[in-house]
């Protein structure tokens, strides 16, 4: 049986709730069924990143420093998706949603795209983006986040 290739895209791997949830998730996925890939937009030299690496996973760092790095990040993530034959892209938090959406749209593979929403703070630009650039699936970590996003 072929493993399902899942790429988790996260803004950074600093210590926080989203990062800890991702670490817990990948720790409990079956390695014989899933090939796990982790990409961070910036900062892959934290305790959580080191823990992920110690567990045998690679962390692909897009090394973004500013908004000016967005086009290069989209291109590099798209190449990574193609080269690693990614089946599912699961993006955490708004900036990862944006980069992932455009990276997936530039690939020939067109993997499934999932947005993970983990906050009840939603900005107007985020609402517009979610309406115009919809993923294959939205996942909310609580009813409050779902209610804010979808009424």
Structural account:
42% of the residues lie in helices and 21% in strands. It has 6 helices and 6 strands; from the N terminus they run E-H-E-H-E-H-E-H-E-H-E-H. The radius of gyration is 15 Å and the shape is globular. By secondary structure, the protein is α/β, with parallel strands linked by helices. The longest helix is centred in the middle third of the chain and has 14 residues. The model has no long low-confidence stretch (mean pLDDT 87). The chain has one domain: Rossmann fold (3-Layer(aba) Sandwich), CATH 3.40.50.2000. Strand 2, helix 2 and strand 3 form a beta-alpha-beta unit. Helix 3 packs across helix 4.
The number of domains is: 1
Order of H and E elements = EHEHEHEHEHEH
Strand arrangement across the biggest beta sheet: 3-2-1-4-5-6
CATH superfamily membership? Glycogen Phosphorylase B
Q: Which consecutive residue ranges, at least 5 long each, have pLDDT under 50?
A: none
**Structure annotation, total helices:** 6
Helical proportion? 40-55%
Overall pLDDT level: 87
N- to C-terminal separation? 41 Å
Proper CATH architecture: 3-Layer(aba) Sandwich
Annotated CATH topology: Rossmann fold
CATH C-level class is Alpha Beta
Sketch the major β-sheet: 6 strands, parallel
Question: What is the radius of gyration?
Answer: 15 Å
- What overall form do the CA principal axes indicate? globular
């Amino acid at each position: 049986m072929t493993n399902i290739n899942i790429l988790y895209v996260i803004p950074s791997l600093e210590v926080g709730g989203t990062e800890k949830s991702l670490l817990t998730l990948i720790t409990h996925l079956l390695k014989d069924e899933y090939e796990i890939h982790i990409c961070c937009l910036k900062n892959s030299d934290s305790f959580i990143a080191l823990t992920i690496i110690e567990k045998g996973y690679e962390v692909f760092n897009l090394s973004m420093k500013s908004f000016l790095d967005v086009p290069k990040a989209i291109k590099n993530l798209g190449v990574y998706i193609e080269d690693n034959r990614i089946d599912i892209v699961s993006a955490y938090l708004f900036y990862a949603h944006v980069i992932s959406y455009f990276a997936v749209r530039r690939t020939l593979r067109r993997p499934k795209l999932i947005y993970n929403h983990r906050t009840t703070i939603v900005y107007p630009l985020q609402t517009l983006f979610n309406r115009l650039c919809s993923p294959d699936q939205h996942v909310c970590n609580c009813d409050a986040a779902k209610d804010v996003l979808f009424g």
